[in-house]
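Section 5.1 Outputs to date
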Amino acid sequence: MREISIDHIVGNVHYTVGQDRAALGNDKLNLPPVLQRWIVLDVVSDPFSFTQEKINDIEAKYGPIKNKGLSTEGRILPRNTIIAYPPKNAYNPDPKAMFLYPFFPSAIALPCRPGEHVWVLFEILQPENQAMDAESERAYWLCSVVQEGHVDDVNHSHQARSDDVDFIISNNDIKNGEVRQGGASAKQRVEATKPQYHFKNGKYIGGERSLDVTFADLFISTSTSGPAGDEYEQILRTSEGSKNSVYESVPRFKKRPGDIALEGSNNSLIVLGRDRDGPLFEGSGKSAGTIDIVAGRGQTTMTGGNVIINDLGNQELAKDGSSLVPDEGNPDFKTDKSRIYVSQNTNVDDNFGISEYNEENLKIEDSDEGNPGIIIKSDKIRLIARSDLQIIVTNNVEEAEDDPKKFASITIKSNGDIVFKPSDMGYIKLGGDDADRGIVCSAFPVTKTNGGIEGGHLLTSMGGLFAGAAFATPECNQPIPTPGPTAGIFANKVLIK
């Protein structure tokens, strides 16, 4: 072995370069695992509001914070720092809570909630015979621990349910409403083993609901905030991070192998994948790269999954075998609340259910091969521009795209004008694609003034006045006085070409 000093990089720290760690084995190195599983006690979303009083409150519940020096003497914790507690084992015989910095830079902030488990990395693996300044020891949380499918939840995962017999029996014995093992009917079996959506330290075993709390010895066993075995519940009821969270049922999205899916904890989703308007194995088999940005999925029982009320009184997605819904989490272009859909190739009108309207009323339709498309759908849509807002159609013929005479546009200008402009061979149609009436105008221009329209009077063939505008205001214009009934007036805000 040889010793390499890198004082000029990291100060008075020395690393020993020797045999490969994996080949040598942890038992010979006497080092803890590279990744450790810790329990989240709280989240520091705003370091400037994380006062000494809050630190004192946490220490009163869970004992001293080992490296609280990171938050004293003018130091500011990074955003998304967590306070976490380690398991009690050979590497942590006297466990203490610690501040854990986020592993990823602040530009990538992953979700993390009190009561969940996270993977933890230490910057320096300290041998037992070397002293260390624990007050400033740094460690990092990587991400939440992925749990079994009947436990893992994008909103909140409670690890202690992983080995509950009730969940396991439900998942193993029930499929398509039939029992695969045993002689009881599916309904009887489900009732006898109905899973408990609990937040205890331990696990429920069997239909009698007896609780095995041996799990309490592994985590937060020093807590004095409640009865033994209820520490997780206390975290969820009292932590600041939990109070700043919304616990709800979020349907699980099943992605295709080539997709990148980013799910938020509260029913928001971005998928970089292919054109898809329904089940996982249906839809486009062609090259159709698509970005789907959606919030508020699962608005029907078919795509929303089954919802239960857990032991804390919150809604939660049911995850036991007897509650599974095949179409849970699938895209639903009709009922999902809000969506921006950007696709290289899709059937826009067919997918969003407006093809019949467009074909009959506007004489436009999807091509047989599909089209590139961008679709925005929600209850209320606002486009807000600080300058001009413009919608331009350049025609879909390549040679026409550079010819402005072929363009049609709607422009809302910063001076307040709204301009509808057809192409040189196009028309502005009001009321429908079959509009065929012309607008009769005066033979001379009117005058734009004071936010309204003024113009000379119009005469009948007998010389009588029948229309005009004496003066204008932004609200209305006034007709030219006539001896008889009031004459007609020009439209106050519309100019016709």
